[in-house]
Every structure is written in C-alpha cells, then in structure tokens.
Amino acid sequence: MTAKNKITLQIASIYIFVLLMGFLLRNYETNNHYQWIIIFISIFEIAMICYITGKVDGEPLGSIGLRNVSIMDIVHGVVLGVILYLLYTVPVELFTNMSVTANRPLPFSEMPYLYTLLFLSFINKITDEVIFRGYIFTKLNQLLSSKWAVILISFLLIYVMNLSKTLSFNGLNMYGAFITTVLYCYYLYYFSRKSIIPLIISDCLLIILRAGYGYIIWEAIYSFF
C-alpha cells in the first residue's frame, strides 16, 4: 500500500467512525445519561486520535497541533474568537432587521444550565479541533499540494458531519462552517507554531459571545459612532 493510499484510508476510516458516533449521539438526545454519553464518546475519540498519531503513525502529538499552552496561544485564541464572532454577526446587523445587541443573557445565577452548556460545548470543540483541524487537516496536507483544496475538503467534511447530526439544511450553519474553516486553516498555515490550542480557545469564547455576551463588543463598537 502506498503512503497516499494509507493516508486516504486513515482519513476515510476516522471520518466514517465520527459520522457513526454523531448518529449515535442524535439517537440518545432524550436519554437521561446523554451528557455522560457525550463526554465518554469525546474522550474516546480524542484518545483514538492520539493513539493513531503516536503508535500507528509514530509521530509526536505536536504534529497534529497538540502543544503546551503559551501566553500567545491565549492571545491568539481571544483575537480569533472575537473576529469569528463579528464575522458571524455582522451580516445580521447589516442585512436583517434583527439586532444582536437585543439578545442579552440572564445573569449566571439565573442560568444554571449555562455551566452545563459551556462544559459540553467545550468538550465537543476540543474533540472537533483534534479530529478535524489537528489530525485530518494534517493528513490532507500530506495528501494534497493545494491549500485551497485542503480548505474546501475540510469545510465539506465538517459541514457534512454537522449535517448528519441535525439532518436539516441551514444556510447560516453552512456560512458559519465555511468562515470558521477558512479562518482556522489560514491561521494554521501562516503561524509557525501550528497549534490548535488557540482554535479551541476561540471556539469556547465564540460559544460565550453567541450565548448573548457578545452585546458588550457591539456596544463598544457603537460607542465610537
């Protein structure tokens, strides 16, 4: 088996497995232990990627972007998160009658479920970044010479994975998946550290901002006009 055939088989096998896990999670949404199922599957998928990278491929985890956290990782993650939030919300402010500043969250004390939401989202985002921007992105770059081909395939794989969970087409979800993929892949291409830690931080910040706390950013923007 050639090296490229091996890479293609690895990508296909991992992706099919992730799709199957997505269908499984969707069928257990009403289960009382749904949260624990998410945690177990996420940990299993991350462990699987780490095992394949270290034992099967014989490469360090740093090769898929799992590196020690640095101060600059945090800074980059915050900047990416804010940029991504604005890219998500600017079309809403400019082209619709909706206002993102109108949706403000309740205080944390009145939203106990928010802690669970953030925790589960955090687990999901770590898993997605390890699989898609860590392992699959790295392997696609070994397989293809065109960066835009890698970005396009990465976008399609991520969007189809999310589509398999919802089973419904949504233009906003497609837009969100596309701009996220382009921004994150651009970051991995042009920053030498090649760490996915900033992407995980960015994802988690985006969750908080889209939960309603992004109104602070928009009020700061409006204060200049």
TrEMBL record:
Coiled-coil regions listed: none
Regions that span the bilayer: 7-28, 34-54, 66-88, 144-161, 167-189, 196-218
Superkingdom as given in the UniProt entry: Bacteria
Pfam families the UniProt entry points to: Rce1-like
Alphabetical UniProt keywords: Hydrolase, Membrane, Protease, Transmembrane, Transmembrane helix
Example GO biological process: proteolysis
GO MF entries: endopeptidase activity
InterPro entries in the cross-refs: Rce1/LyrA-like_dom
Record-annotated CAAX prenyl protease 2/Lysostaphin resistance protein A-like domain positions: 114-201
Protein name (database record): CAAX prenyl protease-like protein
Lineage per the UniProt record: Bacteria, Bacillati, Bacillota, Clostridia, Lachnospirales
